[in-house]
């Protein structure tokens, strides 16, 4: 009987081993197949909102022109929007921003704020606010919007999901441009009627600091990623000034050399538009009179003028692609940052120029927004420089 039992045990052990091996193989095969399944491709688009140069419909009509960054910035589609005045004419677009938390694009016009779902491309809501609306900025977590009234006394703080007013911040500075700090702790508020930059605590929604005074009233500005330095355009200056966001002190005045101030078509100031490359090595500055973008070395302080690029029209704003490869002045020129060459220009399907001071890069995966750039040309280095 012992040999028989031995044989039976051997056969049963073999069956168990085979079944176990088969399970392991099947399980491994499934795992391998799931690992081999490609992840959804990330699509990089540039959303250009118009009319983004005053109310000029000749620069792209009324709506959103979408361009494929990875396909030589070719036109992809047009998305209609709201934003009409009471007489039925399209209103000036004042700002644009993205919330990944709500998967929405927000567009501010003279009178209202509209919220557009980035997947369905439908406007979910549009609300008018007391005092009108200027250039908005959204918190890094995508939940809160700081919304300046239209050059009036206050900023309105709004819930990004509903558009409901949370509170107001009174500065009496002619509220205008706004930048939410990358760390989410502070918001920088520049007014057209003040030489001081107000700094708001994002938790208490109160002014906790002022930076300046600068040489004249503040126009567009940008900040570095560590939130230690601010670079501001001011009235009457072809150039920019630098301030310390930590101490609140004015630091430097930088004047463009070799060019006259001259007359400008819009905005009333020589330099309206300033941005920092994501690596923070350069400052790019708009010159409205000479149709130029001037480039400064930002690895030294104060920054030093390096070169200039002629663009096709008056630049009134500038920002950069997330990867830092492209510069986007409001003229619709697409500039290779490394070579300084204009590689293409934004055009609609009928080969008409598209220009706007309100544009933002958005990355999509599986039909949802997964990353976004910013409209202000903010630096992306989080570590503070050794010297300021």
TrEMBL record:
Signal peptide: 1-24
Protein's UniProt keywords contain Signal: yes
Record has Chaperone as a keyword: no
Gene3D superfamilies reported in the protein's UniProt record: YVTN repeat-like/Quinoprotein amine dehydrogenase
Keywords: Signal
Xref: InterPro entries: Host-pathogen_enzymatic-act, Quino_amine_DH_bsu, WD40/YVTN_repeat-like_dom_sf
UniProt name for this protein: YncE family protein
């Amino acid at each position: 009987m012992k040999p028989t039992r031995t044989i039976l045990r051997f056969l049963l052990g073999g069956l168990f081993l085979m079944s176990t091996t088969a399970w392991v193989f099947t399980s491994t095969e499934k795992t391998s197949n799931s690992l081999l399944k490609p992840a959804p491709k990330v699509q990089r688009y540039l959303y250009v909102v118009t009319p983004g140069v005053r109310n000029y419909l000749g620069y792209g009509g009324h709506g959103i022109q979408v361009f494929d960054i990875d396909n030589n910035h070719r036109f992809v589609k047009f998305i209609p929007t709201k934003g009409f005045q009471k007489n039925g004419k399209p209103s000036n677009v004042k700002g644009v921003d993205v919330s990944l938390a709500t998967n929405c694009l927000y567009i501010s016009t003279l009178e209202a704020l509209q919220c557009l779902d980035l997947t369905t491309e439908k406007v979910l809501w549009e609300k008018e606010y007391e005092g009108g609306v200027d250039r908005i900025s959204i918190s890094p977590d995508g939940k809160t919007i700081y919304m300046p009234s239209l050059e009036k006394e206050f900023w309105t703080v709004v819930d990004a999901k509903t558009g409901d007013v949370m509170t107001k911040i009174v500065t009496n500075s002619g509220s205008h441009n706004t930048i939410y700090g990358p760390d989410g702790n502070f918001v920088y508020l520049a007014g057209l009627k003040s030489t001081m930059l107000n700094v708001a605590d994002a938790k208490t929604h109160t002014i906790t600091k002022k930076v300046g005074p600068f040489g004249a009233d503040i126009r567009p500005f940008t900040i570095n990623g560590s939130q230690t330095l601010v670079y501001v355009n001011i009235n009457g200056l072809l150039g920019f000034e630098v301030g310390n966001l930590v101490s609140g002190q004015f630091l430097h005045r930088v004047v463009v050399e070799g060019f006259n101030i001259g007359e400008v078509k819009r905005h009333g100031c020589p330099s309206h538009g300033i941005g920092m490359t994501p690596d923070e090595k350069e400052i790019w500055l708009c010159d409205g009179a000479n149709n130029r973008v001037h480039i400064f070395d930002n690895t030294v302080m104060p920054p030093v003028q390096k070169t200039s690029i002629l663009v096709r029209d008056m630049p009134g704003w500038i920002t950069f692609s997330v990867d830092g490869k492209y510069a986007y002045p409001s003229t619709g020129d697409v500039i290779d940052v490394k070579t300084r060459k204009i590689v293409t220009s934004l055009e609609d399907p009928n080969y008409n120029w598209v220009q706007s001071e309100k544009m933002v890069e958005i990355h999509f995966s599986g039909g949802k927004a997964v990353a976004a750039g910013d409209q202000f040309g903010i630096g992306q280095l989080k570590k503070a420089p050794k010297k300021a």
